[in-house]
Structure formats: structure tokens, C-alpha cells
Amino acid sequence: MAAAHDSSPREDLELKFGQLHIDYNSQAEELGVLLDRVKSAAESLHILRSKARILAVPGAEQLELEDDGSVSEVVKDIISLLTFTGTSKNQDSLVVTEDGAMLQSIQTVADVLESLLRRAAAAESEASFQKERVIISEEEIRRKTVQIENLSLRLEEMKQIVHENKDVLDETVEIIKKLVEDSRKDREKAVENEEELCRVKTEFESLRNYVNTSTSVVETLLSSERQFQTIEAR
């Protein structure tokens, strides 16, 4: 009976120790998962920071942790905790106590890193979107530049054509002016010719009248001479 009574505290102690060991292993596994999350988030954040710098994301420096050293220290503490081995009850109790605080601390760090990771991913997405817009804008600018250059060439060609047409037009105007001047001179010459024709006609009429008068006189004289000869013949 006494032996049974003595074995009960020992069994309780072994049971508590076994439960403590199970809790320790369970929390160690959970800490290992959190450690993987922290490492994965930190690596992803580092990659996204690099991409953000390449893409020249405004405010990318705000994605930095206020104290990167604290993260490293927490990771070191987790590794120490996972590799920590103890045999005494005091050590195991200390591990459990520190384990709860460490678990909460790592959870907080993991949440912060994942929040930063989401912000970095959003910044990368926005930067990629803006970069695409810049590329599209540059392509549009190049297309507009080509159009402007083509229009400039066409404008120069049109100016050249206008210049050539202006020269032709000036020559045509000069020819027309010359034709108008020649026509004016021809009209003046025609008027002069008409006046000369009228003068010639007048002189011709005067001459014809003179000839007619002279002919009449001659005929009269001849008739008178014939009459005189007839009288003398009698």
C-alpha cells in the first residue's frame, strides 16, 4: 500500500514530464513553421526590394524594417530554442515559459514581414503597371514622332511645290502682262492704222475728184478744139 502510494507521485511526475516534453516538441514544431515563414517572407521581401529598386518605385525605402537586427536576433533565438536541450524540470519549465513569449514574438515578426511582403508585392505590381504605361507612352510618343516627321517632310514637299508653282505663277503673270501690253499696243496700232486708212481714203477721194475734174476739163477742151476745127474747115 505504501509502495503504491510512493509510486503515484513518481507516475504523476513522469506524466507531467512527458506532457511537458510533448508540449515542447509541439511548440518547437510550430516555431519551426514560423521560422520558415519568417525566412521565406524575408527572402521574398529582399527580392521584391531589389525589384523595387530596379523599377525605381517611389517610397521603396519605406518597405525597410525599422530594425532589421531585431529580426536576425529573433531568428537566432528561434534556432537556439529549437536546438536547446535540457534535462531538469527547471530547464524545461524555463523553455516552456520562454517558448510562449518567443512564439508570440515570432508570430508578430512573421505578421510584420508578411504585411511588408504584401506592401512590397503591391508596390511591385503598381510599378510594373506604371512601367507598362511608360512603355506604352514611349511607343505612342515614338509613333507620334514618326507621324510628325512624315508630316514635316510632306510640308517641306508642299512648300517646295508651292515655291515652284509661285515661280510658274510669276512667269505666267509676266507673260499675261506682256500679252496685255502687246494687246494695248496692237489696239493703238490698229487705231493709228484706221486713222491712216481714213486719211488715205480722204486723199483718194480728193485725188479721184481731181482726176474726174481734170478729165472733164480735158474732154471739154477736146470738144471745143474739135468744134473750132470744124468751124475753120468751113
Short description:
The chain contains 3 helices and no strands. The chain has 234 residues and is mainly alpha-helical.
Word description of this protein:
Keywords: Coiled coil. Residues 106-161 form a coiled coil. Helices cover 91% and strands 0% of the residues. The protein contains three helices and no strands. Helix 2 (68-83) packs antiparallel against helix 3 (89-233).
Strand proportion, as a percent range, falls in under 5%
User: Which geometry do the CA atoms define?
Assistant: rod-shaped
End-to-end Cα distance: 231 Å
Following the backbone from N to C, one meets helices and strands in this order, namely HHH
Please outline the major beta sheet. Answer: none
Overall pLDDT metric: 70
- Tally of individual helices: 3
* Unreliable sequence segments: 1-6, 55-72, 81-97
Helix content: over 70%
Query: How many β-strand runs?
Result: 0
Structural class determined from secondary elements: mainly alpha
Rg for CA atoms: 64 Å
Walk me through the topology.
Blueprint (H helix, E strand, L loop, with lengths): L1 H53 L13 H16 L5 H145 L1
Helix pairs in contact: 1-2, 1-3, 2-3
Label this structure with key terms.
single chain, mainly alpha, disordered N terminus, 234 residues, coiled coil
